[in-house]
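Work Package 3 (structural annotation) set out to generate three-dimensional models for the target panel prioritized at the project kickoff. During this period the team completed the workflow that converts sequence records into C-alpha coordinates, so that structures can be stored uniformly alongside our sequence database. As a representative example, we reproduce one entry of 234 residues exactly as it appears in the project archive.
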Amino acid sequence: MKLLNILTATVLSVAISTQAIAQEDTHDPNAKKILDKVLTTTQGYQTLRASFEWTMENKAEKTKDSKNGFMFIKGEKYKLILQGTEIFTDGTALWSYSKDINEITINEVNEDSESIVSNPTKVFELYKNGFKYQLKEEKSLPIKSKVNGKVTTSNKVCHIIDLYPEKPATVEYHTIRLIVEKTTTQIVSIDIMFKNGTDQIIEITEYKPNTNMPDNLFTYDESKYPGAEVNDMR
Protein backbone atom coordinates (compact mmCIF):
# COMPACT_ATOMS: atom_id res chain seq x y z
CA MET A 1 0.00 0.00 0.00
CA LYS A 2 2.83 2.40 0.85
CA LEU A 3 4.47 1.65 -2.51
CA LEU A 4 1.18 2.37 -4.30
CA ASN A 5 0.85 5.67 -2.44
CA ILE A 6 4.41 6.63 -3.34
CA LEU A 7 3.87 5.77 -7.01
CA THR A 8 0.60 7.74 -7.07
CA ALA A 9 2.24 10.74 -5.47
CA THR A 10 5.13 10.54 -7.94
CA VAL A 11 2.81 10.37 -10.96
CA LEU A 12 0.79 13.34 -9.69
CA SER A 13 3.95 15.31 -9.03
CA VAL A 14 5.24 14.68 -12.55
CA ALA A 15 1.85 15.57 -14.05
CA ILE A 16 1.70 18.85 -12.12
CA SER A 17 5.29 19.71 -13.02
CA THR A 18 4.68 18.94 -16.70
CA GLN A 19 1.56 21.11 -16.68
CA ALA A 20 3.47 23.99 -15.08
CA ILE A 21 6.26 23.72 -17.66
CA ALA A 22 3.69 23.66 -20.46
CA GLN A 23 2.05 26.78 -19.10
CA GLU A 24 5.40 28.57 -18.78
CA ASP A 25 6.44 27.65 -22.31
CA THR A 26 3.16 28.40 -24.02
CA HIS A 27 2.41 30.29 -27.21
CA ASP A 28 -1.29 29.55 -27.04
CA PRO A 29 -2.72 29.37 -30.60
CA ASN A 30 -6.13 30.54 -29.38
CA ALA A 31 -4.57 33.63 -27.84
CA LYS A 32 -2.50 34.23 -30.98
CA LYS A 33 -5.61 34.09 -33.15
CA ILE A 34 -7.23 36.88 -31.10
CA LEU A 35 -4.05 38.98 -30.93
CA ASP A 36 -3.57 38.63 -34.68
CA LYS A 37 -7.09 40.01 -35.18
CA VAL A 38 -6.33 42.93 -32.86
CA LEU A 39 -3.19 43.73 -34.87
CA THR A 40 -5.01 43.43 -38.20
CA THR A 41 -7.76 45.75 -36.96
CA THR A 42 -5.36 48.47 -35.79
CA GLN A 43 -3.10 48.16 -38.85
CA GLY A 44 -6.16 48.96 -40.93
CA TYR A 45 -6.36 52.42 -39.36
CA GLN A 46 -4.61 55.32 -41.09
CA THR A 47 -4.50 57.12 -37.74
CA LEU A 48 -5.77 56.40 -34.26
CA ARG A 49 -6.79 58.76 -31.49
CA ALA A 50 -7.67 57.24 -28.13
CA SER A 51 -8.62 58.39 -24.64
CA PHE A 52 -7.49 56.39 -21.63
CA GLU A 53 -7.34 56.26 -17.86
CA TRP A 54 -3.96 55.43 -16.33
CA THR A 55 -3.83 54.04 -12.79
CA MET A 56 -0.89 53.13 -10.56
CA GLU A 57 -2.04 50.79 -7.80
CA ASN A 58 -0.15 49.30 -4.86
CA LYS A 59 -2.44 46.73 -3.29
CA ALA A 60 -0.13 46.03 -0.36
CA GLU A 61 -0.01 49.69 0.65
CA LYS A 62 -3.60 50.28 -0.50
CA THR A 63 -2.66 53.30 -2.60
CA LYS A 64 -4.03 54.28 -5.99
CA ASP A 65 -3.26 57.20 -8.29
CA SER A 66 -5.27 57.78 -11.48
CA LYS A 67 -4.85 60.18 -14.39
CA ASN A 68 -6.59 60.79 -17.70
CA GLY A 69 -4.70 60.85 -20.97
CA PHE A 70 -4.82 60.87 -24.76
CA MET A 71 -2.75 59.17 -27.42
CA PHE A 72 -2.38 59.92 -31.12
CA ILE A 73 -0.83 57.41 -33.53
CA LYS A 74 0.03 57.90 -37.19
CA GLY A 75 2.30 55.19 -38.57
CA GLU A 76 5.58 55.38 -36.65
CA LYS A 77 4.64 58.77 -35.23
CA TYR A 78 2.85 59.09 -31.90
CA LYS A 79 2.00 61.55 -29.16
CA LEU A 80 1.11 60.67 -25.59
CA ILE A 81 -0.43 63.28 -23.25
CA LEU A 82 -0.86 62.43 -19.57
CA GLN A 83 -1.67 65.34 -17.23
CA GLY A 84 1.43 67.51 -17.35
CA THR A 85 3.56 65.13 -19.39
CA GLU A 86 3.89 64.86 -23.15
CA ILE A 87 5.89 62.27 -25.08
CA PHE A 88 5.96 62.54 -28.86
CA THR A 89 8.00 61.51 -31.87
CA ASP A 90 8.18 62.02 -35.61
CA GLY A 91 9.83 58.61 -35.95
CA THR A 92 13.38 59.98 -35.65
CA ALA A 93 13.57 62.21 -32.58
CA LEU A 94 11.76 61.62 -29.28
CA TRP A 95 10.65 64.61 -27.18
CA SER A 96 9.60 64.33 -23.53
CA TYR A 97 8.05 67.41 -21.89
CA SER A 98 7.37 67.93 -18.19
CA LYS A 99 5.06 70.85 -17.44
CA ASP A 100 5.90 70.89 -13.71
CA ILE A 101 9.50 71.92 -14.35
CA ASN A 102 8.92 73.34 -17.86
CA GLU A 103 11.62 71.14 -19.33
CA ILE A 104 11.86 69.21 -22.59
CA THR A 105 14.34 66.40 -23.25
CA ILE A 106 15.25 65.22 -26.74
CA ASN A 107 16.52 61.72 -27.48
CA GLU A 108 16.92 59.56 -30.54
CA VAL A 109 14.17 57.00 -31.03
CA ASN A 110 15.10 53.62 -29.56
CA GLU A 111 13.33 51.11 -31.76
CA ASP A 112 14.23 48.29 -29.36
CA SER A 113 12.34 49.90 -26.49
CA GLU A 114 9.53 47.65 -25.23
CA SER A 115 7.93 50.22 -22.95
CA ILE A 116 4.23 50.37 -23.78
CA VAL A 117 3.83 53.12 -21.20
CA SER A 118 6.00 55.56 -23.17
CA ASN A 119 5.35 54.06 -26.62
CA PRO A 120 1.66 53.28 -27.24
CA THR A 121 2.35 51.82 -30.69
CA LYS A 122 4.00 48.81 -29.02
CA VAL A 123 0.91 47.44 -27.33
CA PHE A 124 -0.78 46.07 -30.45
CA GLU A 125 2.19 43.97 -31.58
CA LEU A 126 3.81 43.35 -28.20
CA TYR A 127 3.11 39.61 -28.33
CA LYS A 128 5.13 39.07 -31.53
CA ASN A 129 8.56 39.33 -29.90
CA GLY A 130 9.87 38.31 -26.50
CA PHE A 131 6.63 37.03 -24.98
CA LYS A 132 4.75 33.85 -24.26
CA TYR A 133 0.98 34.24 -24.13
CA GLN A 134 -2.09 32.38 -22.97
CA LEU A 135 -5.83 32.86 -23.30
CA LYS A 136 -7.02 32.65 -19.69
CA GLU A 137 -10.77 32.87 -20.21
CA GLU A 138 -13.69 34.57 -21.90
CA LYS A 139 -16.11 36.36 -19.60
CA SER A 140 -18.37 39.37 -19.16
CA LEU A 141 -16.53 42.27 -17.51
CA PRO A 142 -17.44 45.85 -16.52
CA ILE A 143 -15.73 47.96 -19.18
CA LYS A 144 -15.35 51.74 -19.19
CA SER A 145 -16.19 53.69 -22.35
CA LYS A 146 -16.55 57.36 -23.17
CA VAL A 147 -19.87 58.43 -24.69
CA ASN A 148 -20.46 62.11 -25.52
CA GLY A 149 -17.50 63.05 -23.36
CA LYS A 150 -18.71 61.12 -20.31
CA VAL A 151 -17.17 57.86 -19.10
CA THR A 152 -19.70 55.14 -18.32
CA THR A 153 -19.36 51.46 -17.40
CA SER A 154 -21.20 48.53 -18.96
CA ASN A 155 -20.69 44.77 -19.08
CA LYS A 156 -19.10 43.40 -22.26
CA VAL A 157 -17.88 39.95 -23.26
CA CYS A 158 -14.07 39.99 -23.30
CA HIS A 159 -11.06 37.77 -23.83
CA ILE A 160 -8.48 37.79 -21.03
CA ILE A 161 -4.96 37.14 -22.34
CA ASP A 162 -1.79 37.04 -20.24
CA LEU A 163 1.63 37.80 -21.70
CA TYR A 164 4.78 36.57 -19.95
CA PRO A 165 8.27 37.88 -20.81
CA GLU A 166 10.53 35.18 -22.22
CA LYS A 167 13.46 36.77 -20.35
CA PRO A 168 11.86 37.75 -17.04
CA ALA A 169 15.16 38.67 -15.40
CA THR A 170 15.62 41.57 -17.83
CA VAL A 171 12.34 43.38 -17.04
CA GLU A 172 10.66 44.75 -13.91
CA TYR A 173 7.26 43.15 -14.51
CA HIS A 174 6.17 39.51 -14.54
CA THR A 175 2.88 39.64 -16.48
CA ILE A 176 1.00 41.92 -18.87
CA ARG A 177 -2.73 41.22 -18.93
CA LEU A 178 -4.68 42.32 -21.99
CA ILE A 179 -8.47 42.59 -21.97
CA VAL A 180 -9.84 42.41 -25.52
CA GLU A 181 -13.48 43.19 -26.22
CA LYS A 182 -14.85 40.32 -28.26
CA THR A 183 -17.19 42.16 -30.64
CA THR A 184 -14.83 45.01 -31.61
CA THR A 185 -11.53 43.08 -31.32
CA GLN A 186 -10.05 46.08 -29.54
CA ILE A 187 -7.87 46.17 -26.45
CA VAL A 188 -9.83 47.88 -23.69
CA SER A 189 -7.46 47.33 -20.76
CA ILE A 190 -3.75 46.69 -20.18
CA ASP A 191 -2.55 45.66 -16.72
CA ILE A 192 1.23 45.66 -16.25
CA MET A 193 1.98 43.63 -13.11
CA PHE A 194 5.32 44.54 -11.57
CA LYS A 195 7.49 42.32 -9.41
CA ASN A 196 7.42 44.90 -6.59
CA GLY A 197 3.66 44.40 -6.17
CA THR A 198 2.42 47.45 -8.06
CA ASP A 199 0.18 47.47 -11.11
CA GLN A 200 0.01 49.99 -13.94
CA ILE A 201 -3.45 49.77 -15.48
CA ILE A 202 -4.32 51.49 -18.74
CA GLU A 203 -8.03 51.46 -19.59
CA ILE A 204 -8.75 52.67 -23.11
CA THR A 205 -12.11 54.41 -22.90
CA GLU A 206 -12.47 55.65 -26.47
CA TYR A 207 -11.14 54.77 -29.92
CA LYS A 208 -11.33 57.31 -32.76
CA PRO A 209 -9.74 55.79 -35.87
CA ASN A 210 -8.89 57.67 -39.05
CA THR A 211 -9.11 61.18 -37.62
CA ASN A 212 -7.18 63.97 -39.31
CA MET A 213 -3.72 64.47 -37.77
CA PRO A 214 -1.23 66.98 -39.20
CA ASP A 215 2.40 65.87 -39.10
CA ASN A 216 3.40 68.88 -36.99
CA LEU A 217 1.41 67.32 -34.12
CA PHE A 218 4.36 64.97 -33.66
CA THR A 219 7.21 67.50 -33.80
CA TYR A 220 8.63 70.01 -31.36
CA ASP A 221 7.51 73.61 -31.84
CA GLU A 222 9.43 75.97 -29.54
CA SER A 223 6.61 78.54 -29.59
CA LYS A 224 4.25 76.06 -27.90
CA TYR A 225 6.60 75.63 -24.91
CA PRO A 226 7.67 79.21 -24.01
CA GLY A 227 10.64 79.40 -21.68
CA ALA A 228 11.13 75.63 -21.55
CA GLU A 229 14.62 74.40 -20.77
CA VAL A 230 15.78 72.10 -23.58
CA ASN A 231 18.09 69.13 -22.92
CA ASP A 232 19.27 67.63 -26.19
CA MET A 233 20.62 64.15 -25.40
CA ARG A 234 21.14 63.04 -29.00
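Helices lie at 2-24, 29-43.
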